[in-house]
Design goal:
single chain; alpha+beta; BirA Bifunctional Protein, domain 2; Rossmann fold; five-stranded mixed sheet; 16 strands
Length: 416
């Protein structure tokens, strides 16, 4: 037997309705905010992520699924959604269209990391990107969309926000970080020693316990924001208050991707332990230019569908099960099964969910099967029914029965 690759998971028919529910809520929430869906390839040229995500990030240095194709091109399965959408925004000239360009996606993504609860090597994201608007009101709208999504799913979460400024702010801040971490360099993990040289801001994103203790007393970037970035952050807080969204300022949030500027945020749940972030994002005004396009402001977020489902399960959120077929047609012999099959065809053509037996079960077994399917009604077709042109229809919830002609079956079940 060939087993599934480590870090992946089959979504079986018994569970797929949960995914469909979350994705449906996400699509409806996006519709209310006037976002349109974008679909990009599952793989991109590796350079998209080297330039877009950042060559000091764990994603690029450790986690990407990269290979050379038969044309000797370096290709990477996308580890996140934003860089590919930004590439598409540039390549398809969307900057010349109606702005802001507001879009969402639901994608599989791939990272080679240690599998754990809610974190797989193939995972799925709902993501939102808005291009072309630079104001803090757009940041607040993106956060409001995420907040609406999580509330619509029945989740209890906290919003943490921060600003990591612009390149000008970070130049002074990086200098302060180097001065702070320099005496602690030997105590840092191997990765953080590399980050210290290339991008000190990444030190604050380390999950190693020893590094986290050192990070606790590090200077915060809020002390180094330039006047423009400070004003942007104050405006964000104003808009969040107008939206009635509670927040906590967390100066340790830097997110794990190099493209962020100014606003960064995370929605956190206390119900899934230390790895409590269920949704995160921020502003990335430099990404489009980094990928070769004309500079354009942008902001967005992504939520992991597996993690959303994990939190929903941990907090006892009930996901509504889909309804079973309206009608189950039970044929007693070959001729009756043919009639049942034909009636199913007519019912389905009329938009009525119908099912029949394909296993030559007994009548008793067919009733059990119909009950497992959640069928509302079971119609039994035997020799007498074929002769009379009418069938006995039983309502499963009450066991009430009535006679319905074959000719009137569509009309009868349409009202059910």
């Amino acid at each position: 037997m060939i087993n599934i690759p480590k870090g992946t998971k089959d979504v079986l028919p018994a569970d797929s309705y949960k995914w469909q529910y979350v994705e449906g809520v996400a699509r409806e929430t996006a519709r209310l905010f006037n976002l349109k869906e974008i679909r990009t390839p599952v793989f991109e040229h590796t350079e998209v992520f080297l330039r877009g995500v950042g060559d000091t990030t764990d994603i690029v240095t450790k986690e990407m699924y990269t290979f050379r194709d038969k044309g000797d091109r370096s290709i990477t399965l996308k580890p996140e959604g934003t860089a590919g959408v930004a590439r598409s925004f540039i390549e398809n000239g969307l900057a010349g269209g109606v702005l802001p360009a507001k879009m969402y996606y639901i994608i599989p993504a791939f990272r080679y990391e240690r599998p754990q609860a809610g974190r797989l090597r193939e995972f799925h994201q709902f993501g939102v990107e808005i291009f072309g608007a630079e104001g803090a009101d757009t940041d607040a709208e993106v956060i409001a969309l995420a907040d609406s999504l999580l509330k619509n799913l029945g989740l209890r979460v906290k919003l943490h926000i921060n600003s990591i400024g612009c390149p000008a702010c970070r130049a002074a801040y990086n200098k302060a970080l180097r001065e702070y971490f320099s005496p602690h360099l030997e105590a840092l993990c191997y990765d953080c020693k590399t980050r210290f040289e290339k991008n000190p801001l990444r030190l604050l994103d380390c999950k190693e316990e020893g590094c986290r203790k050192i990070n606790a007393a590090a200077p915060t970037i809020l002390e180094y924001l330039c006047p423009e970035c400070a004003a942007h952050f104050e405006a964000l807080k104003t808009y969040l208050s107008l939206a009635g969204i509670a927040y906590e300022i967390d100066p340790r949030i830097v997110r794990g991707l190099d493209y962020y500027t100014r606003t960064v945020f995370e929605f956190v749940s206390d119900d899934i332990g230390a790895q409590g972030t269920v949704c995160g994002g921020g502003r990335y005004d430099g990404l489009i230019a980094e990928l070769g396009g004309a500079p354009a402001p942008a902001v967005g977020f992504a939520a992991g569908i597996e993690r959303l489902l994990l939190v929903m399960e941990a907090t006892g959120v009930e996901i509504p099960r889909p309804e079973g077929p309206t009608a189950y047609l039970a044929g007693l012999d070959d001729a009756c099964r043919e009639k049942a099959f034909g009636l199913c065809v007519k019912l389905r053509a009329a938009g009525i969910a119908a099912e029949t037996d394909h296993m030559k079960r007994s009548v008793k077994a067919q009733f059990k099967y119909a009950d497992k399917l959640g069928a509302k009604y079971v119609a039994v077709i035997g020799g007498n029914e074929l002769e009379s042109g009418a069938m006995n229809v039983k309502r499963m919830a009450t066991s009430e029965s009535e006679t319905v002609t074959f000719e009137n079956a569509v009309e009868y079940f349409r009202g059910k």
